[in-house]
From TrEMBL:
<dbReference type="InterPro" id="IPR014729">
    <property type="entry name" value="Rossmann-like_a/b/a_fold"/>
</dbReference>
<dbReference type="InterPro" id="IPR036134">
    <property type="entry name" value="Crypto/Photolyase_FAD-like_sf"/>
</dbReference>
<dbReference type="GO" id="GO:0016829">
    <property type="term" value="F:lyase activity"/>
</dbReference>
<protein>
    <submittedName>
        <fullName>Cryptochrome/photolyase family protein</fullName>
    </submittedName>
</protein>
<dbReference type="InterPro" id="IPR007357">
    <property type="entry name" value="PhrB-like"/>
</dbReference>
<keyword id="KW-0456">Lyase</keyword>
<dbReference type="InterPro" id="IPR052551">
    <property type="entry name" value="UV-DNA_repair_photolyase"/>
</dbReference>
<dbReference type="Pfam" id="PF04244">
    <property type="entry name" value="DPRP"/>
</dbReference>
Amino acid sequence: MKKLRLILGDQLNLKHSWLVEKDHNTIYVLAEMRQESAYVKHHIQKVVAFFMAMRNFYTALQSRGHQALYFQITDGDNPQDLEKIIAFCIEKYKIEKFEYQFPDEYRLDQQLKTICSNLKIESEAFDSEHFYTTRHDLSDFFEGKKLLLMENFYRSMRKKHHLLMNGSTPVGNQWNFDADNRKKYKGEVPVPSEKNFHTNVSKVVAQIKEAGIITFGNIDLDNFSWPTSREQSFEVLDYFCKNLLKHFGDYEDAMHTDEKFLFHSRLSFAMNSKMLSPKEVLETVIAFYHDNEIEITISQVEGFVRQILGWREYIRGIYWKEMPDYAKMNVLQNKNKLPDFFWTGKTKMNCMSHAINQSLDEAYAHHIQRLMIIGNFTLLTQIHPDEVDAWYLGVYIDAIEWVEMPNTRGMSQYADGGIIATKPYVSSGSYINKMSNNCSKCHYNVKEKFGDKACPFNTLYWNFLDEKKEYFKGNQRMAMMMNLLNKMNPEEMYKIKVKANEIITNMDSY
Ligand code: FAD
Ligand code: SF4
């Protein structure tokens, strides 16, 4: 039977069981499509990374003797739309069966189901063989539970997969070393220079422009740093183990204006495109830890394992449990628009300037920059979660809806009413001052709550608590903050509210 097998841009899994045998009756198809590149405005580096990784995957398929078709974005016969590409290939190659791997995005899942129901030939969907869990394992795990606590899920995953376990006891006799993962970085240990592949990407960038795809953000045409093949992905993993792992946990929550990446792995694109599996990453990291236990402590490794075995799988499970309603949630009824400086980086707030400019330059910011600087600001200024989601989905190299949306709309914007986070991740400037060196070089004064030089995070924080106090009144985890709010001097509070209103209506002048 002649088969057509679709491989989407984030399904670049060379270890998939589909590829074990070569079959001259099977044709694989990969396509760069306007449909996928234009549904939201993406960072130029993100489009380049996906196209390059897809092209390298296609070359790897061919060199292993598989039959494969590839549509580049500028090819004259590229139908640019998933349904048309499938129809075109079925007709041209007299295909008798169509096969695909379950997509990770709800939108594509629906589209492929519709396409298959309209096909006149047989079709079948297969697992992508990437994650530790299936789409619905998390729903089963929390069946009948009100609170979907990540920590409970994570511990069950550790036991189930025997990762960092001594029999039934966690290595280090503790499940979680979160409390050890909060050091401020003051330059006490040097940060190794970042791994960069210095790939020349002029050709693909020219093709993206020629195809009329509108992108944003910056790119260095001679020095593209992201891995775009399985070999390069392993190099990033190796680099992480040898150079960064020993301080990963300590500085996981730190920020520093001179260090964009600190000790973070930058493996998210390699994993989200499926060039590497989470299993390969964790097994490599844990084996490296066991070989180097004198130099590397358990708190560094546990911190890393928790992100991948815990958070990454949990976030995916929440996505499939809650979609499609999740995409519309906005419990705090936030409605403001993103300021222009999200696209230009022009703001006087030093912390925001660094986090946004870095995002525009690198298509990357690490977790705490995403959560406690940018996300904190958008929540405090009550931006509509649709706007926040679209920006995060466009800007980051690793942003695919299944992982971007629960992190952004849920964890960071509390738009899901606490499905992921039991309280909103908001803070005044003092947290930013504690975890970074931003405030010492800022135009604003982190100690002030109102007045011309007051740190906007301070003003906005108290205003946010006041505006949302009805919503949070029954939330025990907010009780301490609400008590402090109730004790505020009314005159001071009035000044804060006037100033906050001024900031929200003129965000671009701050
Ligand atoms: P490291 O710090 O080295 O962590 C290792 C790995 O752990 C990451 O590569 C990632 O695969 C995983 N991980 C860590 N935290 C999370 C998490 N919360 N959810 C899922 N995986 C996690 N991650 C994405 O992959 N895509 C996104 O679109 C995305 N959007 C985010 C939006 C917001 C508002 C926030 C707060 C977080 C978001 N994250 C997202 C999670 C996290 O910020 C990134 O995974 C991480 O910064 C990627 O960099 P790294 O590979 O250097 O990570
Ligand atoms: Fe950010 Fe406020 Fe610190 Fe400036 S003073 S860097 S705005 S937290």
